[in-house]
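It is worth pausing here to work through a concrete case rather than discussing structure prediction in the abstract. The textbook approach is simple: state the sequence, then state the predicted structure, then interpret. We follow exactly that order.
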Amino acid sequence: AYPLIREYSTDTGTAVASASGRTLQYRNTNRLVSNPEWQIGLQKTGFINEAGECMVMQARVAGRSVIMVFLDSFGKLSRIGDAARVRRWLERTYANERPAAEVSTEGTGGFTRPAVRVVS
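Step two, the predicted structure:
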């Protein structure tokens, strides 16, 4: 629905001209965006006191569209490691299942099973 938000959230960086004509450089702080092994469709990282270091992203893993949400990571890099561990777990879990293209997702928004929740 908002292709520009999707594009900017998955770009490694961009330059834009300010109203004064000065060029401003922006870079994406999510290292996964520049990793060719990840197929990220949309992502956002951030920090607020109530939730700590956070990351939310939509990606293709093992042929499926998944949404991952990480709250209160120990640091900016631990959410990257957490995402890599969840991805490996999903790849092992789905390794012996039919590819998503063979599974009907009609009426499910593209998802074939409930979200995985890890609560500590």
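Step three, interpretation. Residues 3-100 form a domain with the Beta-lactamase fold (CATH 3.40.710.10). Residues 78-94 form the longest helix (17 residues).
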